[in-house]
Write a structure and sequence with these properties.
Blueprint (H helix, E strand, L loop, with lengths): L1 H15 L13 H29 L8 H25 L15 H6 L2 H12 L5 H14 L4 H18 L3 H28 L8 H5 L6 H16 L2 H9 L1 H9 L11 H10 L6 H9 L15 H7 L5 H22 L4 H13 L4 H23 L4
Length: 387
């Protein structure tokens, strides 16, 4: 899918001479278009098809975990998810694109034990446990209420992978794929409408307007929603724009207008906050470069810059960052195999592609910290006598 959507974007840019997705801007430089495609696909092939599978073979994965450990971890994550859901409803925080904040100390529990990350890991660790369906329901409800529609994509990909592992390329798998695509396409206009409705102030949400697609004809809304989907799943357009503005980003980095890629991540961010230093990351600064009239201190959105953006923003450190990335992938693979589970390595491979290769470095480091926390909790449960 990564190659498909970015290859589609390649031909789109060549044909229409315009970027799409986050920004609809001129794309006249053919050399930049092909270069952007090359530096988008190459990291995917290296990290996704060589490096992670290589590390996977170097560690022993205990695929069969104790049923009791799976059960108690499922309950632990469920309590965490329910608490997070209630906390977000009461405080109004956690909504995608929202600037709402809370001073409650409880938020630090969810920073340390991220419910969404823990659910990701639980999917690989205890997907076949009988209690898992309750974790899945709360995960979907919590994310849909917060306007994070990517949860549907994650669950769909996971279930397709599980069917493939169980039945291979079979009629059952092909029927499931066809049915899933048909249902999602039919519902896509309503999913997109729901996404934007949930990201607005709660008082403005109208079920009627969602079902009515805000007065837009269904066929037109479907066409627009498919275009939106293709725009979201490709990163080539933003990589092209990054190349066009490469000098701006490199000068800004030298002047400290956004933090180094080595400073991205929860531990590093806490240090910046403690000392009161400015903490603007590259995806946020990208929004500012594309919209220079914005007040950068009030920008609450960010966009994907791809792995290439992270690498090229500091060309003098690109080799060091490359080896740093390999180390991060090594940690992810190591703790995935220490945790165990039938589908754990696929969850970590998925996180590598969706987080690191799309330029969401902070999210990828957060996932690795989640793996470490989950492993510690698992070991604690294993040492409890009643287990």
């Amino acid at each position: 899918m990564f190659i498909f959507f970015n290859t589609y974007a390649l031909f789109y840019l060549l044909e229409y001479k315009e970027t799409f997705g986050d920004y609809f801007l001129s794309a006249e430089n053919v050399n930049y278009i092909f270069l952007a495609y090359f530096i988008t696909i190459l990291p995917f092939l290296f990290f996704g098809y060589f490096l992670y599978p290589y590390f996977e073979t170097k560690f022993t994965n205990n695929k069969l975990n104790s049923y009791k450990v799976e059960k108690y971890l499922s309950i632990f994550v469920l309590i965490l998810q329910l608490s997070f859901l209630i906390f977000n409803i009461l405080t109004g925080t956690g909504v995608a694109g929202s600037t709402a904040k809370t001073n409650s100390m409880i938020k630090y529990i969810f920073i340390l034990f991220s419910p969404d990350i823990f659910f990701y890991i639980l999917y690989g660790f205890a997907r076949d446990n009988k209690l898992f369906k309750y974790n899945l329901i709360i995960y979907l409800v919590s994310n849909l209420l917060r306007g994070w529609m990517g949860c549907l994509f994650f669950v769909s990909v996971m279930e397709l992978y599980i069917l493939y592992k169980r039945y291979g390329i079979s009629k059952k798998l092909l029927f499931f794929i066809f049915s899933l695509i048909s249902i999602l396409l039919a519902l896509l206009p309503y999913i997109v409408a729901l996404k934007w409705a949930m990201r607005r102030v709660a008082a403005t949400i109208s079920i009627g307007s969602i079902l009515n697609l805000n007065g837009v004809d269904y066929s037109k809304s479907l066409f627009d929603s498919i275009n939106y989907l293709f725009g979201r799943f490709q990163e080539l357009s933003n990589i092209y724009l990054f190349l066009e503005n490469l000098n701006i980003f490199q000068v800004a980095r030298n002047h400290g207008e956004f933090v180094s890629s080595f400073s991205v991540g929860l531990p590093q961010m806490l240090i910046y906050k403690i000392f009161g230093w400015n903490y603007t990351n590259l995806p946020t600064y990208f929004v500012y470069v594309m919209n220079p009239n914005f007040d950068i201190s009030n920008i609450s959105t960010n966009v994907q810059v791809g792995y290439a953006g992270l690498l090229l923003s500091e060309p003098y450190l690109c080799c060091l960052f490359f080896f740093y990335s390999i180390l991060l992938v090594l940690f992810a693979s190591y703790f995935s195999n220490k945790i165990g589970g039938k589908y754990m390595n696929f969850v970590s491979w998925y996180s590598l592609v969706v987080f690191l290769l799309h330029g969401w470095l902070g999210a990828y480091i957060g996932y690795i910290l989640g793996l470490i926390s989950f492993y510690i909790v698992k070991r604690l449960f294993q040492k409890m006598k009643f287990l």
